[in-house]
Amino acid sequence: MSVRSGILAVLGESELYGLQLHTELEARTGRVGSINVGQIYSTLERLGTAGLVTITGSTDDGLPLYGLTAEGRRAADAWLDDPTLGGVSAWGDMVFKVLLASSLRGADARPLLQGYRAAWRALPAPGDTGALGEATGLARQHLAEAALSWLDDLERMPDGLAGLRRPLRNERPRRGRRPSAPEQRDR
């Protein structure tokens, strides 16, 4: 799962602060994979250095709001349009991207689903021979069948992919309590 690309995709919806990005990514992907809040902030820093994200302002209480640059928007769009299967984590990466893309209000995830269908169908037969090669081929075949079935079932849901769209949350995620008086901090 690409937290980097997921951050860019969610920022395509609106300017957000770090913890809000974390909450949106987890809510939109059904918490597929565990995303560390610190990973969000370190990734935002790297995205800023790469010229893909910029600080666009701040919240009422001083949290930096992050937004996409033009290059960041192009990178997000390119990632959302790419159904490439990535090695060992192909299943998790696909689930993360499909759920995220389907949740965005402006994205049409159907081409992404079609691309994944084609990619799963085009998986090459294993080159190895013997029991290990056969077992690997069976695993790949069953994973492809499961992926194709899941993609079909998504589109057959009562509201189809549109049922996965969601607006950005406006409520602030809870943060730790802060002592209200200086003397409480000294205890």
UniProtKB/TrEMBL annotation:
Coiled coil: none annotated. It comes from the Bacteria. InterPro entries: Tscrpt_reg_PadR_N, WH-like_DNA-bd_sf, WH_DNA-bd_sf. Residues 7-76 form the Transcription regulator PadR N-terminal domain. Residues 162-187 are annotated as: Disordered. It holds the Pfam family PadR. This is PadR family transcriptional regulator.
